[in-house]
Amino acid sequence: MDIFALFTTRVIEALRADYPQLENELLARVVVEPPRDPAHGDLSTNAAMVVAKPLGKNPREVASGLVERFKSTPDVTSVEVAGPGFINFRLVDSIWHQVLRAVGAQGENFGRSDLGKNERVNVEFVSANPTGPMHVGHTRGAVFGDALASLMAWSGYDVTREYYINDTGGQTIILGQSAMLRYREALGETIDIPPGFYPGDYLVPVGKALASEYGRSLLDMPEQEAVLIAREAALAAMMELVKADLAQLNIHHDVFFSERTLHGQGGDIQSTLDWLRDEGMVYEGRLEPPKGKAPEEWEDREQTLFRATDYGDDTDRALIKSDGSYTYFAADIAYHRNKYLRGFKHMINVLGADHSGYVKRLQAAVKAVSQGEADIDVRICQLVRLLKNGEPFKMSKRSGDLVTLADVVDEVGADATRFMLLFRRNDASMDFDFALVKEQTRDNPVFYVQYAHARACSIFRTAERDMPGLDASPAALAGAELELLGSAADIELIRLLGAWPRTVAAATIAHEPHRIAFYVHELAGALHGFWAKGKDDPQLRFVNPSSPKLTLARLALVDAVRQVIRNGLGILGVSAPEELS
């Protein structure tokens, strides 16, 4: 039961009854949400301010008419106009009891919806160069992308998790050369790894595997041929390492797309370029040099350019370099056309902080190759600073100059890693304090939320111990007399539960899984606060042997809180333990 969606529908129906000329597009801007100050009521709507100007009326005049309509509604105790035209509602307690029953009835499905209408969405995330293990810079994007994919699936989208393998270009050649050095090392040579090569020990097994398979024969081959063999072995090994690293965070992709498949005669880049020419989206011309330093793709010459400015970009983009090879952007266009041709009209790309300049060009590419049918949202994950007790923290680096994903998970665990990286907006830089996430205090957000779930479970164990004759089975909870939950503390907690479906929907639409982390943290705080009140007021205790019916109703409330916390943590990919050591 989404109380906010229910009243949004009622408000829109009232507006349609009074003003049938209002268009659906305008009415879609009407929202019902919690008021900023809970003292103002249970619900608040902007409806009058949305429609007043098109109607040529004063917002308070429109609001007053709506108020008159809702005064006679049985489940509304009061309704009033506030400020410039907001309408605030106070609801009867029975509404909140219905919400609580809905949580109990729907259980793990409470908050799920068909918002996505089973439309296909491609969430591409991580997509790191397969030149080594995942490092901490990739970890935030990995966790964010996986949680966002789960959130979209929760809201009814058909989600595909995709990893774009950058398995072509100069960096892969350097990887092959680095693997060749480790191959020589495995044959007994003393090696010196030059600057710019990959120095990590993770290539040592690759060198040993090459030595085992080829003996000394690679040394007898032309260097270029040997490096290509070493590159293929290293790329395969690195992708297995990447998958293993991601698995430590329970992240698994559905599709691993090789960039190399786009290249070559008859590949997607060539066919996409031909299609762009046929559609008049490319031309031969010159680019003005950008202000400041020139990017790698700019060359002062006549060249093949994509009309990116026709699709919202700041400049047209080069597609072919002077040596005849394709630019990175040409591959990007072909790749996103490939996604579109695979049936994805919704695309989400999760990129690192150094890719913020890619947003407009990718949006232009998708708009062009889909002829406006598809959309893309590029989410940028900002940098993470590692701290311990507030000071910069240098961990042991087992992979050259990298702090790896595995290092972080080994230090604090998968749950803490995931929750803490999601407990902040993706586009804001953040500090990750290893000391904080190990504390068992309210200052540690992941502990605070998991402890709330464990506390809810312990309340049931307390009831079983102190009231052994009480039936607290799911069937008994479903039949509890929820009308007994009439205190301000009860209603406040149920009201927060009622916000869960709206929170999920809003987070889905905004592509912001941090809203889920914020919500479960707030819900955990509300449960802890209620428990503290019970220490002073016996009537607010969850387990009260002198009041079996009230206890059963409170257990229904605790069970609902437990369920919603578990639902939220499930979206985030974090466990909900029943006990904490």
TrEMBL record:
Pfam families tied to this protein: Arg_tRNA_synt_N (PF03485), DALR_1 (PF05746), tRNA-synt_1d (PF00750)
List locations, semicolon-separated: Cytoplasm
**Gene Ontology BP, a term:** arginyl-tRNA aminoacylation
GO molecular function, one example?
A: ATP binding
**CDD domains with a match to the protein in the record:** ArgRS_core (cd00671)
Please give the HAMAP family that the UniProt record associates with this protein: Arg_tRNA_synth (MF_00123)
Q: What is this protein called?
A: Arginine--tRNA ligase
Source organism of this protein record: Devosia subaequoris
Gene for this chain:
argS
